[in-house]
C-alpha cells in the first residue's frame, strides 16, 4: 500500500518538469555532424565530441568526478583509414560506405589486377592478399590490430556482374597509442552523497573511412549521449539525496575499453554505487525496450516494471540475461549492480552510413525520461 501511494505521488510530480526534446535533437544533430566525423579516430572526431560533452557538463553545473578534471584519459591501439579510399570493379567506380567498406583490420593496398572466383561470394587476386567479398549489408567496426591482407566488402546490389577486375588505392594508418578520454561528472547528493546512482553511455562511434565518408552514429550512440545529457541537465537543476553521477565512455566500439579502464582505475569507490544504468541505442522504443542483466537483478527489474506499468511508459520491457555487449559489463564483473537498457522498433540502421539523426523518431523519449526519473526516485527511497 505504501509503495502504491509513493508511486502515485511520484507521477503527480512529473508535471513539475519539462523534458527538453528540442535540446536532445539539437545535441544529436551536433554529435552526428560532419564536424565530429563519426566521433572516431580521424579528423580529431572523438576529441571534439569529448570537448563538447565536457562543455555541456560544465554549463549544467556538474562537478568533475575526481574534483579536478572531467576527463579520464587512456591509450589504446587502433587501425584507421584517413586517406585514399578509391575502388573500381569491372571499370565501375564504387562509393565508400554506400557501395563498399574496407574490413576494419585490413592493411592498405594499391593494385590494378584481375580477380579469380573462390566461391560465389569471394574473389581473390593471384597473391591472395586481396579479397573481395559480396554481401547484402555493409556493416563496419573498429580493429585494434592490422592483418597482413586486405578485405573489401562490396554491396551485391552495386554490381551487375561477377567481379573480374579491380583497381584499388586504399591507405591505412595504424596508431599504437591513440589517446581517448572518458568524460565523468557528478551532481552531489543532498543527504547521502556517498550513495551513488551512475548513468552511463558511450560517445564514440566508428569515425570515418577515407576523406569523404563518415559514420554518423545517431542511434549508436548519439541517442544515448543526448539522453544522458538531458538527464544531467535535469538532475543539475534538481539535486537528489543520492549523488547522481554520469560517465560518457570512449573506446566502446573498439572493445568496451573505456569502461574497462574506468573499473580498473575508478574515480569513485565502486562499492558506493547503488545502481548503474547504461544506455546505448535509445532513439526508438515503439515496440518497447530490453534490459540486459534483468535476470541478474530480479528485484530491481521488478521495480523497473512496476514503475513502467504504473506510468504506462513503454509497451513492454523485455528481460535479458548477462551479456558483455556494452559498458555495463565490467562494472557487473566488479560486483556493481547494473542494467543495460536499449529500445526497440523504428529504424534498423546499425554501424553503417545510414544511422543519421534525421531517421531517429525519439517517439518514446519523454516516457523513457520519466521511467528513468521514477526508477531512480524509487531506488533512493
Beta-strand percent range: 25-35%
The CATH class of the largest domain: Alpha Beta
Helical content stands at 25-40%
Global shape: elongated
Number of helical segments with 4 or more residues: 8
What average pLDDT do the residues reach?
Answer: 95
**Topology as H/E string?**
HHHEEEEEEEEEEEEEEEHEHEEHEHEH
- Poorly predicted ranges (pLDDT <50, ≥5 residues)? 5-18
Tell me the span between the first and last alpha carbons. 15 Å
Determine Rg (CA atoms, Å): 22 Å
CATH topology of the largest domain: Aminopeptidase
Count the domains: 2
CATH architecture annotation name of the largest domain? 3-Layer(aba) Sandwich
CATH superfamily of the largest domain: Zn peptidases
User: Would you tell me the structural class of the helices and strands?
Assistant: alpha+beta
Number of DSSP strands?
20
Largest sheet: 9 strands, mixed
Describe the protein.
GO terms for molecular function: metalloexopeptidase activity. Keywords: Signal. This is M28 family peptidase. Residues 182-369 form the Peptidase M28 domain. The protein has 381 residues and is of the alpha+beta class. The protein has 2 domains: 2-78 and 176-379, Zn peptidases (Aminopeptidase); 84-170, no CATH class. The protein is 26% helix and 29% strand. It is built from 8 helices and 20 strands. Strands 1, 2, 12, 13, 16, 17, 18, 19 and 20 form a 9-stranded mixed β-sheet that branches. Strands 5-10-9-8-7 form a 5-stranded mixed β-sheet, with no helix packed on it. Helix 3 packs parallel to helix 4 (218-237) and helix 6 crosses helix 8 (365-379). Mean pLDDT is 95; it is low at 5-18.
